[in-house]
Amino acid sequence: MEEKWKKTAMFVIDMQKDYLLPGKFMQLPGGEAVIPNVIKAVEVARQRGILVIWIVREHDSLGRDVELFRTHMYGKEKEGPAVKGSVGAELADGLVIQKSDYKIVKTRFSAFFGTNLHPLLQRAGIDSLVVTGIQTPNCIRQTIFEAVELDYPSISIITDATAAATPEIHAANLLDMTNVGVATPTLKEWCA
């Protein structure tokens, strides 16, 4: 294993059924299409010995831990997205957490906000991040911008293993991230 991979972590953000599958009210258009690329990216990361970190949302069924603007989606008579223990909170088919991986549960956009992610990365000697998942202008962007603020020297987002509501939104957010020093390889480029 190359030394640089020992210091690299791959984030897999919000690749959960409630956000990806047709018919779900929080389904991200185009999200389902990136599942094969995320599966491939995780496979390559494991082959390289990269730490794979699954970043998921899991919420209280009553919505007591969601952002204020989402509280109307939860309650005794409703089951909002990514309720802890629900089928919708599960990873999409083909995505599996292995023993050597790590799982972070978040309740906000950024994977760093209110979690132990940063101390975990520091303890593991991680200085390089590779990001996959959904959705580019929300959870991915917030996580990446916070990583920039925390001075991670190398951050990449795999452009075709991530998605937004439209290609235009995705491209605009990738441009913003490029402007703060984030690398934007395709999966093929990253695998090379």
Automatic annotation (TrEMBL):
Signal peptide: none annotated. Gene3D superfamilies: Isochorismatase-like. CDD domains: cysteine_hydrolases. Pfam families: Isochorismatase. Residues 8-183 form the Isochorismatase-like domain. Transmembrane segments: none annotated. Belongs to the isochorismatase family. This is Isochorismatase-like domain-containing protein. It comes from Protea cynaroides.
